[in-house]
């Protein structure tokens, strides 16, 4: 439930459930191309100022979105009209939201098909709730921490601790694990040799921060110092690399350093 793509999809449902849910509204609207956080906040405040949903929708319909938003605005309005109309069953609401969100998902995230499968699970979860309010309340109060807590996973006899997840840093955004190993935290890898300017280094630092903050309880940062490379069949190049420059003296004070052979 902490995955970014799950939060994205649920933001549409949460905002339809409570139009004064500013966080959900801004998240949902910011997913549309051409709409930044500031404009999304304005649109949410505008919508929340009306007690009547139809009047609020009428104001939104009168707004002329930027060209970059294109036909997505009309599709969003149609979806939101359906979500706030009170006629669609919960499973259908999720299906319609997923239909709208799928092209955004494919454009925004790596591992598109894996994330899509996660979202399709929500339709199965929805089957045990009588309505949207009950589902959102339950997921807020007692969210499953992983797919291992879902009934269909338990039925297959899968143990919660018998697997290892390998992930890129980009794909790990929004996720958390009890124990995380960050590998190759050496200069040339983190930050990459290709990040040559200030902006590139800052982006690498942000990525490193993302990697480190995926750990709930235990974090291991591995920095191999000596490398053996075979870029060509006739080459046996080897090399020495320093620990990532991001792990400076101040950061090291917060860590326990262990040196291996």
Question: Can you describe this structure?
Answer:
By secondary structure, the chain is mainly α. It has a two-stranded parallel sheet. Helix 10 links the parallel strand 1 and strand 2.
Q: Secondary-structure map with pairings?
A:
Elements: H1 4-17, H2 22-30, H3 37-48, H4 53-62, H5 72-84, H6 90-108, H7 112-126, H8 132-141, H9 151-155, E1 177-182, H10 198-212, E2 215-221, E3 226-228, E4 238-240, H11 249-252
In short:
With 261 residues, the chain is mainly α. The protein has helices at residues 4-17, 22-30, 37-48, 53-62, 72-84, 90-108, 112-126, 132-141, 151-155, 198-212, 249-252; strands spanning 177-182, 215-221, 226-228, 238-240.
List descriptors.
11 helices; elongated; 4 strands; mainly alpha; single chain; two-stranded parallel sheet; 261 residues
């Amino acid at each position: 439930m902490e995955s970014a793509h799950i939060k994205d999809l649920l933001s549409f449902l949460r905002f339809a459930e409570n139009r004064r849910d500013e966080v959900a509204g801004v998240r949902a609207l910011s997913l549309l191309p051409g709409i930044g956080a500031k404009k999304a906040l304005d649109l949410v405040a505008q919508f929340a100022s009306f007690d009547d949903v139809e009047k609020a929708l009428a104001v939104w319909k009168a707004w002329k979105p930027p060209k970059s938003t294109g036909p997505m605005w009309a599709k969003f309005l149609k979806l939101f009209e359906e979500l706030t109309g009170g006629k669609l069953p919960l499973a259908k609401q999720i299906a319609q939201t997923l239909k709208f969100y799928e092209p955004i998902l494919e454009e925004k995230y790596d591992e598109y098909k894996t994330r899509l499968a996660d979202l399709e699970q929500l339709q199965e979860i929805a089957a045990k709730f009588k309505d949207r309010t009950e589902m959102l309340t339950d997921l807020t109060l007692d969210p499953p921490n992983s797919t291992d807590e879902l009934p269909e996973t338990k039925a297959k006899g899968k143990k919660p601790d018998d697997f290892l997840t390998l992930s890129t840093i980009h794909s790990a955004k929004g996720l958390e694990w009890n124990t995380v190993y960050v590998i190759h935290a050496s200069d040339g890898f983190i930050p990459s040799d290709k990040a040559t300017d200030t902006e590139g280094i800052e982006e690498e630092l942000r990525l490193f921060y993302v990697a480190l903050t995926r750990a709930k309880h235990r974090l291991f940062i591995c920095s191999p110092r000596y490398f053996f490379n075979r870029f060509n069949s006739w080459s046996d190049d080897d090399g020495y690399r320093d620990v990532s420059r991001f792990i400076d003296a101040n950061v090291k004070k917060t860590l326990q350093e262990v040196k291996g052979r």
